[in-house]
TrEMBL record:
It is found in: Mitochondrion. It comes from Heterodermia speciosa. GO terms for molecular function: DNA-directed RNA polymerase activity; mitochondrial promoter sequence-specific DNA binding. This is DNA-directed RNA polymerase, mitochondrial. Residues 189-510 form the DNA-directed RNA polymerase N-terminal domain.
Length: 1212
């Protein structure tokens, strides 16, 4: 023989032949050519002994789909699938085939690859599922609804095409839950369809609900119409309005002489034509409903800027996705190049995976990524669509008056208005109360289609846009396009610096989940009762309003003012309950759709490296009601250790989590009667589980424990429950390790002990003691709170205080906890939550100031570094500023210079953010900048936008305030990823919520060992020394504006030097700053010269920096602004108001909305007293330019981190 049948070149030649014919057959539908190809494949190729590979089989499947005999197509495809199965390449073959398909072949391919065909007696192939199985979820209890609710879950399954019976391949209700993925390829197809059909499915649902109501004689949008039917009416009207807007834009474009309105139309008009009007209309409605439903719609509405940005962003994303889809189809239609077929004769699974990955990377590099729209265009498009929706969306409302019979009137669904927030007039969009009431009962199911949990395993992360969802290319970092952090992220991704982060995200995403059916059934029953049960708000909460004061009272005006305030508090409280119930209804409907399904949560990262699920409405980071619904899809036998951890977990979720493990285990054993009662009669029994800190998780654990104990051998019981191990104030754990603080290590369980230490309980006890003293002294607020404050009330503030939470943020954290407390039985009227939150926050800060010492030095060092970096100039910026100054001579002060179209860049235009590298190699860039506000004129109002750019000056306050918490968050994120990698290497299921790690009960001991080892591994290197070295290298040759006290010896020397030169002693103007910057820059260049004479000249120059170098100490340098605050320090009332006005965003992302909400009132601030540190820093300062040097790293303590290996309560 002249060749070997298995030679790669021979296989490549045969595959090229198949490829060419398959392409011709697909285009021409030539049946004779198809028969010839199939004969050649079966006879000639096999006779020569040439073994087909994945690409060959995939091409044969593609060609066979062009056959005109639908009865023979499934037999033929089954034949090729069987051959691929025998070769061990079945799944890879179908994956490649799905990428080769033409648009008109996709549906047929999905139909004929659902499952393996079975042979009939006459030899014809039939497809399983042709006899439609009864739905596994038709037996679920219905969610309580208003009359004429609509198509209910049947319609939801119609809209969510992946849940369609038969076509979707739903498992039968008798299928065992531990059979995780019987047909991975089919799940991939379902997931792709789910991601693609969002808007088409929504429109179809609305149309069907509208048609159904017309059949029963409902022809107008009455009050009891389903939301789907209402939105169909809005959709039809909005489509017409969009077409009119497009026509106006085209007309304006054709005009030679354009007016201002014509030019406005020409700006946004083309963007309304990128997608069909029907898709734009659906995207607009869904964006508005989703935003209003999840953004406290019942509490004053949503900011107009938020809403129009959401609409514009949704249209932009869909247009980009559409462009990518078209481009992908174009690439897919291209013939395969010869090199693609030059692989081993029998491709292994790993080789095929690599081939697919290579093709995907190549496709992405060849495809130009569609550019994102400008914020201005997003807002203009969003505003015009919102205005048209406001005009067209309506609902019939029953109007009832005491003196007249009920009448029906047509009202708008959305209202645009204004109100003042922190002294600024802001536009808001509110929803009609009738619509809010409807959404409380009936969620908009079609909104649930976007970014849901996945029914197929997420794509592994391999690139910046490559991972997670199958069709939606969402970046791995949640960072705005065009920012410096985004650029760093892209480069890090290409250079491999994100590989460990990618691996960790892939592990988190591939963990399969299921819905806990017994808990779900109980939750539905509780929901339908309408009562307030386990943090589910009551449907109609009965809260009596205080009686109106008598007009004859002497102090009527004062009593009326108090009455109005109390009434407003009650209304806000009721509105909050209504909003929460509406949002929980969304979550219950999602859970209902996923019952008996295996699903996944794809993850990506924020700029600090923290992982977050990409499905925002329903995930394991949700509240207790969502966590209680989730279990691992994969089960593991408990074993002896697992049964013990299941009992400990019960104590933890109940709130008995600060005792020893033995005591927690005994707690569960002592309450077995309650456990059985809860599991068997959750709502009709004693309801012991409702007293738990996390009631729904407690119920889930009771059910799991009861089932285990009732089994023949509890140790052999297969458990699916996720067991949590939480860090002890994890931020302080990292601080204690960084500083080597022995006392701090003992407080946060780095030091082994017989019992767990608990900072939160310690602070709570101190706060309660102080409240008791004040109550005994007659303080009215203390009397109300006496006995009310618990560990939970103080926990979030204690935890985030070490992360740099502001005092205003602390107030709101406490207020959030107080809002969940029922004060009705306290014998007092409706509480003033704001005043009590302020009171407790002061007490918490006071307690913290007496407890924490070890974290202080590290936190201050981080703050000082950030303070210097955020007031520094790079060498390039210095040269630019000095060169620009030569072009613009004679301007005495840039701040006082006449306004020009191009802003002159002054010496205090600091643009350097704090940048560091986390232990995994990921670059972290703080995004806080003072972006210039751009006013965009719209037909509703002028919208003020901030357009961030790397050229914008940084926000010094935010860069400083955020750095310590962000640095610690980057460490806890790295610790989580390292633990995930270790767990995955040993086959453990793993999930995490930041510093809470989850696995099966039987694997908790193993995971705990990995948690401790990964922490020791990370902190074995001196992280602060490495950070200092990185700063010194990164900011080499930078200069910063240092400050010393004007009354110090150094300050007086510098002032005297300047006055002798005829300048202001305090460096007041920009001209003086420029002069000294130029002089200091020259001195530094001379000192660095290779010429001895130049070095001597530089040494002889006298500048403020040279005076400092000769006679001062590092300790002389003080912050140039009133920025720093130590752990537990209470800021002044002025600073608290300043925080509100600047909308400071620091600390946990969970608190972002709390911190960003700037509203406050003077009653919350009246008791805040300035701290001594604030008073000390109010002295005058002298500023001067100085080469970047960082303060000495605080001396590390003597704690031996290896002792952590024996600390059983480190995470518990």
């Amino acid at each position: 023989m002249l060749y070997k049948p298995t030679a790669p070149g021979l296989l490549a030649a045969h595959t090229e032949y198949v490829r060419e014919l398959a392409w011709r057959i697909t285009k021409t539908k030539n049946q004779q050519m198809l028969k010839d190809l199939q004969k050649w494949f079966e006879v000639d190729m096999r006779r020569k002994g040439v073994p087909p590979d994945t690409v060959t089989y995939a091409l044969m499947i593609q060609a066979s789909l062009s056959g005109d005999n639908r009865k023979s197509i499934p037999r033929t495809i089954w034949r090729y699938r069987q051959l691929a199965e025998e070769a061990g390449i079945h799944d890879q073959t179908l994956e490649i085939a799905s990428r080769l398909l033409e648009d008109d072949q996709v549906e047929t391919f999905e139909e004929f690859t659902k499952d393996s065909p079975q042979r009939t007696e006459v030899g014809e192939a039939t497809l399983p599922g042709s006899d439609v199985l009864p739905s596994v979820i038709t037996s679920l209890p219905e969610v309580k609804a208003v009359p004429q609710k609509g198509l209910g879950l049947t319609s939801l399954r119609k809209a969510l095409s992946l849940f369609r019976d038969g076509a979707s391949g739903l498992p039968s209700k008798d299928e065992k839950s531990d059979k995780l993925d019987p047909n991975a390829t089919q799940n991939v197809l379902r997931q792709r369809r789910l991601e693609k059909d969002t808007f088409e499915s929504a429109i179809s649902r609305w149309r069907e609900e509208n048609a159904r109501e017309k059949k029963i004689g409902v022809s107008t949008p009455v009050k009891n119409s389903s939301i789907g039917a209402l939105m169909w009416g809005w959709h039809e009207a909005l489509v017409s309005a969009i077409k009119d807007e497009v026509a106006k834009a085209n007309e304006a474009e054709s005009k030679t002489m354009k007016s201002a309105s014509d030019r406005e139309l020409c700006q946004y008009g083309p963007f309304l034509q990128i997608l069909p009007p029907e898709k734009i209309s659906a995207a607009t409605i869904l964006a508005v409903m989703a935003t209003t439903a999840t953004d406290k719609l019942a509490q004053g509405g949503v900011r107009l800027s938020t809403l129009v940005s959401a609409i514009g962003h949704s249209i932009q994303d869909e247009s980009i996705a559409e462009a990518r889809l078209v481009e992908a189809q174009r690439k897919r239609k291209k013939p395969l190049v010869k090199s693609q077929s030059l692989q081993a004769p029998r491709a292994t699974k790993e080789q095929t995976r690599k081939w697919l990955a290579m093709q995907e990377r190549k496709r992405k590099t060849e495809t130009l990524e569609p550019s994102e729209w400008s914020r201005s265009i997003q807002v203009k498009v969003g505003t015009v669509l919102l205005s048209r929706l406001i005009e067209t969306a309506s609902i019939n409302v029953e109007s009832t008056r005491e003196d007249s019979p009920p009448t029906k009137e047509r009202q708008a669904v959305f209202f645009h208005g204004f109100r003042f927030v922190s002294g600024k007039r802001c536009g808001f969009v509110q929803m009609n109360k009738a619509m809010i009431e409807k959404m409380t009962h009936e969620p908009v199911k079609s909104v649930l289609l976007k970014n849901l949990p996945m029914v197929a395993e997420p794509r592994p992360w391999t690139g910046f846009h490559d991972g997670g969802y199958l069709e939606h290319l969402i970046p791995v970092l949640r960072i705005n396009n065009g920012t410096l952090g985004r650029r760093y992220g892209v480069v890090a991704s290409e250079s491999g610096d994100l590989d460990q982060s990618f691996a960790g995200l892939t592990i988190l995403g591939k963990t399969p989940w299921r819905i806990n059916r017994p808990v779900f059934d109980t939750m539905i029953e509780a929901w339908n009762s309408g009562d307030a049960i386990a943090k589910i708000p009551a449907l109609d909460p009965l809260i009596e309003k205080p009686p109106m004061p008598s007009k004859t009272a002497l102090d009527y005006a004062e009593q009326r003012r108090k009455w109005l305030k109390q009434t407003k508090n009650i209304e806000n409280y009721k509105a909050g309950l209504k909003s929460n119930r509406c949002f929980q209804n969304f979550q219950i409907e999602i859970a209902r759709a996923y019952v008996d399904q295996t699903f996944y949560f794809p993850h990506n990262l924020d700029f600090r490296g923290r992982a977050y699920p990409m499905s925002p409405l329903f995930n394991h980071m949700g509240a207790d009601n969502v966590r209680g619904l989730l279990i691992f899809a994969k089960g593991k036998e408990l074993g002896v250790a697992g049964l013990r951890w299941l009992k400990i977990h019960l104590a933890n979720v109940y709130g008995f989590d600060k005792a020893s493990f033995g005591e927690r285990e005994k707690f569960a054993s002592d309450h077995l009667t309650d456990v059985y009662d809860a599991a068997e009669n959750p709502l009709s029994g004693r309801r012991w589980w409702l007293k738990a800190e996390d009631p729904w998780q407690c119920l889930a654990t009771c059910i799991e424990l009861k089932n285990a104990l009732d089994s023949e051998d509890p140790h052999r019981f297969v458990s699916h429950l996720a067991i949590h191990q939480d860090g002890t104030c994890n931020g302080l754990q990292h601080y204690a390790a960084l500083g080597g603080d022995i006392i701090g290590a003992r407080q946060v369980n780095l030091e082994p002990g017989d019992r767990p230490s608990d900072i939160y309980t310690g602070v709570a006890e101190l706060v309660k003691a102080e409240i008791g003293k004040d109550a005994a002294a007659g303080n009215a607020t203390a009397k109300t709170l006496d006995g009310i404050v618990t560990r939970k009330v103080v926990k979030q503030t204690v935890m985030t205080n070490v992360y740099g939470v502001t005092f205003l943020g602390a107030q709101r954290q406490v207020r959030k906890q107080l809002n969940e407390i029922d004060f009705a039985g306290s014998g007092v009227g409706p509480p003033d939550i704001g005043q009590m939150a302020n009171y407790i926050a002061v007490k918490i800060f006071s307690a913290l100031s007496t407890m924490f010492t070890g974290a202080h030095d590290i936190q201050y060092w981080l703050g000082k570094c950030a303070n210097r970096i955020s007031q520094s100039l790079s060498p390039e910026q210095i040269e630019f500023i000095l060169a620009e100054d030569k072009v613009k001579p004679g301007v005495a002060d840039y701040k006082k210079a006449p306004t020009t179209r191009k802003r002159v860049e002054g010496p205090t235009s600091f643009k350097t953010p704090v940048i560091w590298t986390n232990p995994l190699g990921m670059p972290v860039v703080q995004p806080y900048r003072n972006a210039p506000a751009q006013s965009v004129s719209t037909n509703l109002q002028r919208v003020s936008l901030q357009l961030p750019s790397p050229s914008d000056p940084v926000s010094k306050r935010k860069q400083f305030q955020a750095f310590p918490p962000n640095f610690i968050h980057s460490l806890d994120a790295s610790h989580m990823i390292l633990t995930a990698l270790m767990c995955d290497a040993k086959g453990l299921s793993f999930a995490a919520v930041h510093d809470s790690f989850w696995t099966h009960a039987s694997d908790v001991d193993t995971m705990n060992g990995f948690i401790r080892e990964s922490f020791i591994k990370m902190h074995s290197e001196n992280i602060i020394d490495r950070l200092a070295a990185e700063f010194s290298a990164r900011y080499k040759d930078y200069v910063y504006l240092a400050s010393v006290s004007a009354s110090s010896v150094l300050g007086r020397k510098i002032q005297a030097m300047r006055k002798s030169a005829g300048r202001n002693g305090k460096l007041a103007t920009n001209t003086e700053k420029l002069e000294e910057l130029r002089t200091e820059r020259l001195r530094c260049k001379l000192l660095a010269s290779d010429n001895p004479k130049e070095r001597e000249q530089g040494a002889s120059m006298v500048t403020a920096a040279s005076i400092f170098e000769q006679s001062a100490d590092e300790k002389e340098i003080v912050p140039s602004e009133n920025l720093e605050a130590g752990i537990g320090e209470i800021p002044s009332a002025r600073d608290v108001k300043l925080e509100a006005n600047e909308q400071l965003e620091v600390g946990d992302l969970d608190n972002a909305k709390l911190v960003l909400d700037p509203r406050t009132d003077d009653s919350e601030l009246e008791k805040v007293q300035p701290s001594a540190a604030v008073k000390r820093r109010s002295a005058p300062l002298v500023r001067f330019w100085m080469s970047m040097k960082f303060p000495p790293v605080p001396k590390k303590g003597d704690f031996d981190l290896s002792r952590l290996r024996d600390s059983l309560y480190f995470f518990s």
